[in-house]
Design a protein that fits this description.
Helix content: 55-70%
InterPro entries: AAA+_ATPase (IPR003593), ClpA/B (IPR001270), DNAC/IstB-like (IPR028350), IstB (IPR047661), IstB_ATP-bd (IPR002611), P-loop_NTPase (IPR027417)
Keywords: ATP-binding, Nucleotide-binding
Radius of gyration: 26 Å
GO molecular function, one term: ATP binding
Protein name: ATPase AAA
Strand content: 5-15%
Family: Belongs to the IS21/IS1162 putative ATP-binding protein family.
Number of strands: 5
Number of domains: 2
CATH class of the largest domain: Alpha Beta
Structural class: alpha/beta
Length: 264
């Protein structure tokens, strides 16, 4: 079957949009130059949107978060200006790591996902994982070749998000794989990491103080460490939900204030 000129030139988005473009060109009396520019812009935009969708699928982000959706007023210890500066993505270009440290529920994952989403939109490759998932994937590989293949999966992206560091103590083998990954990405790609465990506790986490020191040396050499020590968003939401359930409605208050006729 003979392919159309659009298929031969690989212009699927222009082919789909051309009837509408021609109608607008006729109605608004575009010049040939304007029509050509709009046609090419349509194809470029279509390709960019497809590329973003492909990167988003590969990134495996559990949800879409933004800095605009983060309540900085609830975490006054955080510098909004600093996060906005990180959002310009210079950390990706310089292969700088970002480490969010703090107790559970304070917004560390939200911030890491917001920066990851910004990187995706700008055209960078991203992969999200938890330390538990990462460790399990590497330690269950059945042969060395599969280990190398899975390691490449985590080494390749421009930005690797490792969430929930500190929730699981690693085996000796898992700790070694974690060290190999951080070493492989050192000065070659950015890591965004969230942890509820201070660096002093990483020896226990990895089961090896010497290995933990060597890993942290590489992780923190080029890194922005951001402490998130405020209140828990989840506790805030739970308290709000409880308040809404326990608080009587306006209608109920009005009803209880009415005194029946003849009763004093």
């Amino acid at each position: 079957m003979k392919h159309s000129i659009y298929q031969q030139l690989h212009l699927p988005y222009l082919e789909a949009a051309l009837p509408q473009l021609l109608q607008e060109a006729s109605t608004q009396q575009w010049t040939y130059e304007t029509l050509l520019q709009r046609a090419l812009a349509t194809e470029v935009e279509g390709r960019e949107q497809k590329a973003i969708a492909r990167r988003l699928k590969a990134a495996r982000l559990p949800s879409t978060k933004t800095l605009e959706g983060f309540d900085f007023s609830f975490q006054p210890s955080l510098s909004e200006r600093r996060l906005r500066e990180l959002a310009d993505l210079s950390f990706v270009r310089t292969c700088t790591n970002i480490v969010f440290l703090g107790p559970p529920g304070t917004g560390k994952t939200h911030l890491s996902l917001a920066l990851a989403n910004r990187a995706l939109t700008a055209g960078h490759s991203v992969l999200f994982t938890t330390l538990s998932e990462l460790s399990h994937a590497l330690s269950t590989a059945s042969h060395p070749g599969l280990v190398r293949s899975r390691l490449r999966r985590y080494i390749t992206p421009s930005v690797l998000v490792i969430d929930e560091v500190g929730y699981t103590t690693l085996s000796q083998e898992q700790a070694r794989y974690f060290f190999e990954l951080v070493t492989a990405r050192y000065e070659h790609g950015s890591i965004i990491l969230t942890s509820n465990t201070s660096f002093a506790g990483w020896g226990t986490l990895l089961g090896d103080e010497v290995l933990a020191t060597a890993l942290l040396d590489r992780l923190l050499h080029h890194a922005e460490v951001i402490a998130v020590n405020g209140r828990s968003y989840r506790m805030k939401e739970r308290q709000t939900d409880r308040a809404s359930v326990s608080a009587p409605s306006e209608a109920a208050l009005s009803a209880t204030s009415v005194v029946p006729t003849g009763v004093r």
